[in-house]
Amino acid sequence: MNNLKQCLKEFDIKELRKLKYFLGIEVMHSKQGIFISQQKYMLDLLKETKKMVSVVSQFMHNPEESHLKAVNRRLQYLKGSPTRGILFKRPTCTCVTLKAYTDADYVGSLVNKRSSSGYCTLLGGNLVTWRSKKQNEIARSSTKVEFRSMALGI
Known about the structure:
Elements: H1 2-10, E1 21-22, E2 25-29, E3 33-37, H2 39-56, H3 65-80, E4 85-89, E5 98-105, E6 116-123, E7 126-134, H4 142-153
Antiparallel strand pairs: 1-2, 2-3, 3-4, 5-6, 6-7
Helix pairs in contact: 2-3
Organism: Gossypium australe
Protein name: Copia protein
């Protein structure tokens, strides 16, 4: 420990404490794991929404359906989200496993006949990456679509 403190002093590096807030994300540590949320960000969005409502209210003399829909979408999002977050659980054993899941939708789009692929990766049961993508080419078989989906997940 003394060697570490000596190195920190030599290179003029600060010893940081547990992370609490970073780039709009609140970080809370507990026995269950690490919980992250954006509650402060949501409160800031509420302030912006007040501004948006004042902008929309300019159209009160000639309101349109699109104005009401815009406000409703914003309010529904804010109503359902303020206290939500992600809990990264502490592993119950010393072995941390990496799991990847892939899936595909063969000819999912009726408009252009393209398939969709997706994957998610879990480290110790916690989601670390995910992606969903419409494939560039039209596949001739579901096997090819599933293979592309697996390749995307690797």
